[in-house]
Amino acid sequence: MAEPDHIIVKPIPNLSKGGLGVAFPFFYIEPKKYESVLRKYFPEDKGPITTINPIGNSPVIVGKESLKKIAPTWMNISLAMKKDPETDKAFGWVLEMYAYAVSSALHGVGNILYKDFMIQPPWDTEIGKKFIIHYTYGCDYDMKGKLTYGKIGEWRFDKRSYDNVAPPRNLPLPPPGVPESVCHSLQGNETGESMELTLPYPLPDCA
């Protein structure tokens, strides 16, 4: 499973072994911290809270039969969490990620935690052996190539800028010094004056 803000930069092999799924570990998915909340959905008789992996639903490699079991539970737990004010407040926008992690644990589907699954610019600057670039954070830089995170940069690439409109076909070149992880999904055109998005669908020409 992947997301629209994932750029796959090299073929992903089947990393799954022994019936386990494979997932990226997120530092902000903290089952121990939220044990009292999670016990509403993962009772003590199901095992220690650490049975719940610190993952979301993507990127994930999971077997079809396992997903058939997980998916209905994932939906039901997501709805139950959203309806519960305490859980909804605790998890916010990562609620469905927790719901997937809980559902996976309930069905006994463990996961290999694979840190090299993806990078997340601007904090990760080199692609290396990673398979995915996850553009979850805004990438803001001044014209000297210095990161200005938290402040809109003179040059920026942020998916949130395109919530209601398609990105333009040609984007300004990033300044020198911007890391490869930010620029990898963009290709320079013949003039070298702009970057053209590498996308599998046509985009409208924008002024």
Automatic annotation (TrEMBL):
Residues 1-186 form the Hydroxyproline O-arabinosyltransferase-like domain. GO terms for molecular function: glycosyltransferase activity. GO terms for cellular component: membrane. It is found in: Membrane. Pfam families: HPAT. The keyword DNA repair does not apply. Its main location: membrane. Keywords: Glycosyltransferase, Membrane, Transferase, Transmembrane, Transmembrane helix. It is a single-pass membrane protein. InterPro entries: HPAT-like, HPAT/SRGT1-like. PANTHER family: HYDROXYPROLINE O-ARABINOSYLTRANSFERASE 1, PEPTIDYL SERINE ALPHA-GALACTOSYLTRANSFERASE. This is PEPTIDYL SERINE ALPHA-GALACTOSYLTRANSFERASE. It comes from Salix viminalis. The lineage of its organism: Eukaryota, Viridiplantae, Streptophyta, Embryophyta, Tracheophyta.
